[in-house]
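for the writeup, i need someone to sanity check this before i put it in the appendix. the sequnce is what the collaborator sent (i think, or maybe the updated version? ugh). structure was predicted straight from it, no edits. if anything looks off just tell me and ill rerun, i have time this weekend
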Amino acid sequence: MNEIEKTEKFEQTTTQVSIYSDTNLYNEFFKIAEGLSKTELVPASYRNKPESCLLAIDLARQIGCKSPFYIMQNLFMIQGKPSWSGQYCTAVVRANFDNVHIEWKGKDDPDGVGCRVIATDKNGNDCIGTWVTMKMANAEGWLNKTGSKWQTMPLQMLQYRAFTFFARINCPEKLLGLADEFDKDYTEQKTRTSKVIELEQKLMEDKTNE
């Protein structure tokens, strides 16, 4: 068996077998995860955390993604929940449907402006998403969250949320039941985390000086 055949067999086997049900397989993937965790190319939330990298690898296998880097770049922890980025949800819809486009309404009314996603599935059926409007965003409290991107780029956020709602209804298996909080920006979360760490360090220093 040549190297190409070995690789193909390995990929087929590892896709079919759960990482957590085979000790040898788990150890092999954990070695890969350890290597990934040591590179600066992975996001800070995965750096030096092989266990998190392993979960990203496993999730990539589940959704048929060839690179765990794609998962790491698009999956973040928001208030303790794994959350997909807006780009991911948009990409999922565009990859699995045809004739994908955004329909807008109420552009003359700032409070009523909204959009929805319309597309055609692989069987030729029309799929129409839920309307997402600024009135909805206000009622749901998305606008009032500290650091919310709804305040600075509302039209972009409308589209992200429209793609989210569309994916939830028309291809929920691609989201694997994970939460999505597109009005929470990763950079903002990272900044908040840094501030918390700084505060904790200051408290420790104050305790030491007591």
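The two ends are 69 Å apart (CA to CA). The beta strands are 75-78, 81-84, 98-105, 114-120, 126-128, 132-133.
thx in advance!!
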